[in-house]
Amino acid sequence: MRERIALLSFLRAAGPAPLAGLGVILLVNAVAPPVTAVTMAYVLRSGGTDALTAALAMGGVVLAGQLALSFQQPLTLLASARIDGAFRTRIAALALGAATLDLVERQRVRSLMAVATAEPDDWATKTPADGALAQLSTLMRYLGLVLCAAVLAAWSWWLVPAVVLPALAVRALIGQGWIRHFRVWLASVGDRRWFEYWAGVTSAPAEGKELRVFGAADWVLAHYRRHVLAHLEPLWADDRRVMRDHWLRVVLAVVPLAVVYVWVGLGTVDGHGSLALAAAVFTASWSTYVVVAGTGDIISLEGALPVFRAARDLEHLLAPAEGADRDGAAREAAAVPERPPLIRFEGVRFAYPGTARPVLDGLDLEIRPGELLAVVGLNGAGKSTLTTLLAGLYRPDAGRITADGADVADLPGWASRLAVVHQGFVRYHLPLERNVALGEADVAAREGAVRDAGLAALAARLDGAPLSTAQPGGVDLSGGQWQLVALARALYAIRTRARVLVLDEPTAHLDVRTEHELFQRLAGIVRGRSVVLISHRLATVRQADRIVLLDGGRIAESGTHDELMAMGGRYAAMWLLQSRRFAEGYDDRLEAGGVR
Ligand SMILES: Nc1ncnc2c1ncn2[C@@H]1O[C@H](COP(=O)(O)OP(=O)(O)OP(=O)(O)O)[C@@H](O)[C@H]1O
């Protein structure tokens, strides 16, 4: 019950005017039947002009009820859009605001997200707006019930329990039936998804071709039929049960009403009350059922409760801890010193959530202020993982990462001091400029970053077109051009706030000349900033101040190119192999398993 009342809190998002309007409409709906009963009694009791006035009043009540109904749908649509919109925004904010990625990647959080953001694509999936408005409607119904009870009590107090209790029992029975039907539906949703899949297979062009060629039509139809029946048979069984039990509801509704009608009728003949009062009691008795037994609310409430619970659990799991000061974080980020910090990985051990094997295991590494540090290693060595830990997206299982001695986990706004080009950078369906600056609006910095990345001519040519052919007037870019856009995004951050640039395979899609020109430019642009460069192209890495080779979760070799070559270890072997392949006209990247 507490949860059902708490659902009402969602109503705030509807805004005061739609909420007030809906409140009035639902109230009018709920009180119209008892008020009609009362005005009808006045019509019957009055004579002459009084009767006319009472009849007009009754007509007015009926008309007001119908008028209110005509506004109900548009207002419900508006309120629902606002409530569900605010709810989805809150869920998205929770997901994006989670301190680290492992929080949102947990299986439980993923499942809760799926429940909280499910699109209603059948009658059983409900949204918070459905639940909250149903709860409001239920409250109004009970108000209508009180009025009906008042009319009944005007004849005799015991009419109230005699009518209201069976009506409540009918509501409970119908509600129970709905809830059971709802659960049967949910239990067979898996089969529904499957029969939808097989229905798609029967009509999809590619499958159609293959099924004919392989003569597999009967096989598909058998699957389709099996899942349709598995989904529908439990529902049919439940429908039969509803029909079987229906007599109980009829008896519960009809017998008390019949007793009350006869008793009130006889009482009127005996002069216990007027005909007008008897008519009002008759109408109010029936209205009690009309007001209470409407059960559309029950299923909306039942369907919205899992969404409500999922949202509550997500708040609990993802909301920033009490006292977390986001504004403080922004201020802190704004006040970062000009000089990049000395970053240290100290005995860092890390395994991805749900996996046993550590990717990094006792990693010690220094990223000195202003240096260009290259990280190399075979596929899967943990280079990208190192960057995500550096950005604070995951926390180490053991050891720590510090910036000027402070644990980065405790540094508010730490991520904003880094500009990271991830291997899997994001391609937003937005114009190039907005892909670079995202939500920020420092035009000079944005234009500078676009120039730095060598994209000025392309930006002028695109003239604000969105970078996706899925959008009207949109265009797509080549893989290399996209990579430069992602780089420009990081260079924008470097111009505005970041002190450390992290480049994870930033030139994998670039031709050798573009890459060469880019690095020539970058040397000037990032002067004074620290740069962590991950690359399989050792020719690119060679110019780094220091190169570290990651293997077995820790740093296996470290030094300048010349030092590592002189050492004659794995880096030297990789270099010689790449040089030879390059000389032979092959690609110059290291391939997994190329060196052992
Ligand atoms: N989100 C994830 N969940 C679980 N395991 C992951 C995840 N991301 C990466 N891994 C695993 O962690 C290991 C290191 O991956 P990582 O991407 O850091 O390697 P890498 O050195 O950057 O490789 P590459 O050179 O291929 O880019 C791999 O075994 C990979 O399968």
How would you explain this protein's 3D organization?
This protein has helices at residues 2-6, 16-45, 48-97, 101-105, 107-116, 128-155, 159-187, 189-203, 205-214, 217-269, 275-293, 296-318, 326-334, 383-390, 432-437, 443-452, 456-462, 479-496, 512-525, 538-541, 561-567, 570-583, and strands spanning 343-350, 360-367, 372-376, 398-403, 406-407, 418-421, 500-504, 530-534, 546-551, 554-559. The radius of gyration is 35 Å and the shape is elongated. A hairpin with a 2-residue loop joins β4 (398-403) and β5. With 596 residues, the chain is of the alpha/beta class. α2 (16-45) packs antiparallel against α3 (48-97). It is 63% helix and 9% strand. The chain has 22 helices and ten strands. The strands form two sheets. A six-stranded mixed beta sheet has the order 6-7-8-3-9-10. Strands 2-1-4-5 form a four-stranded antiparallel beta sheet, with helices on one face. Residues 325-329 and 588-596 have low confidence and may be disordered. It folds into two domains: 2-318, ABC transporter type 1, transmembrane domain (ABC transporter transmembrane region fold, Up-down Bundle), CATH 1.20.1560.10; 339-583, Rossmann fold (3-Layer(aba) Sandwich), CATH 3.40.50.300. It binds adenosine-5'-triphosphate. Adenosine-5'-triphosphate is lined by residues 352, 355, 359, 377, 379-385, 423.
